[in-house]
Write a structure and sequence with these properties.
By secondary structure, the chain is an alpha/beta fold. The longest helix has 18 residues. Helix 2 packs across helix 3. The chain has a single domain, classed as Rossmann fold, CATH 3.40.50. Its EC number is 2.7.10.2. Belongs to the CpsD/CapB family.
Length: about 260
């Protein structure tokens, strides 16, 4: 007699569909983030919390069409910079945390800096499968790699494994289908992408061209006008580009953030 796993199926027996895997749940160390001066739900009215309240409001108005017709895929917002070290990941995480405080919105934070992912590190989490794995494996679904967090309205999509063809993967039909699913599946969802720097990789401009809104982080007193102009030139195809002027020091020991549209 064959072993149990080799028994033929009984004729007429209904095959039950495989159960979908339960979403992974991870714990963000919110106390650690608060000590780093970042935005958290219970962090109070800190300068960073107030600044990102100002930053998010026009982005949400455009995503919802409150100032006129809604921007196509306006709920897909990419945060990038001209060069590394300007604070784009810091701004992406804070923006996601701030939007997650809204009463009627859920947020998906995507680490799309696939060559040098840092969102999970900032959140105090270990590496996990994510965006690149979905694009490489047709059998893998978005729900398989999204991480639910202890912030009820915030989920995270890690970058996943590195790949030398990242630019082509981000420009692929699979990526366009994924973005369409992300943008349209949940009407109340805003998606924040942490992108690579524009002047270092080709992935950034490919990614930005598929977004409804772009946020360009510029480091005060460090990023040159030439770098900003070149970054904006690469964003020419994007209709809605916003700037965050980051790391302005009004007095010793303080960080202020300016926002320009």
């Amino acid at each position: 007699m064959p072993p149990n796993d080799a028994l033929p199926e009984q004729s007429g027996a209904a095959r039950l569909p495989a159960a979908a895997p339960a979403p992974r749940h991870v714990e963000i160390d919110l106390d650690r983030l608060r000590q780093l001066g970042m935005v958290t739900h219970d962090g109070g009215r800190t300068p960073a919390a107030e600044d990102f309240r100002l930053i998010k409001r026009p982005l949400l108005r455009r995503a919802r069409g409150e100032d006129g017709a809604a921007i196509p895929q306006g709920n897909l917002i990419v945060v990038t910079s001209a060069l590394p070290g300007e604070g784009k990941t810091y701004c992406a995480v804070n923006l996601a945390m701030s939007i997650a405080m809204e009463r009627d919105i859920t947020v998906l934070l995507v680490d799309a800096d696939v060559a040098r992912p840092s969102v999970l590190k900032v959140l105090g989490l270990g590496a996990e499968p994510g965006l690149m794995d979905i694009l490489l494996n047709d059998q893998l679904a978005l729900a398989d790699v999204i991480l639910r967090t202890n912030v009820a309205t915030l989920s995270v999509l890690p970058a996943g494994r590195a790949n030398k063809h990242a630019t082509e993967l981000l420009a692929s039909r699979s990526m366009r289908r994924l973005l369409k699913e992300i943008a349209e599946r949940y009407a109340d969802r805003v998606v924040i992408f942490d992108s690579p720097p524009l002047l270092i990789t080709t992935e950034a401009s490919v990614l930005a061209a598929q977004m409804g809104q772009v946020v360009l982080v510029v480091e005060a007193e460090t990023t040159t006008q030439h770098a900003v102009r070149e970054a904006l030139r690469q964003l020419d195809p994007c209709a809605h580009v916003n700037l965050i002027y980051n790391k302005i020091r009004a007095f010793p020991g303080s960080d202020y953030y300016g926002y320009y549209d």
